[in-house]
Amino acid sequence: MVTPSGPVLLTDRKLAAGSLISVVARAVRGGAAWVILRERDLPYEQRRALAIAIQDLLPPGRLIVAGPDPLGADAVHLAEADPLPTAEVSLVGRSRHGAPELSIEDYVTLSPIYSTSTKPGYGPPLGPSRAAALAGEVPWLALGGIDSPERAAACAEAGAHGIAVLGAIMRAADPERTTRMLASAFAGAGGKRLGGSA
Question: Is residue 28 classed as helix, strand or coil in its secondary structure?
Answer without folding.
Answer: helix
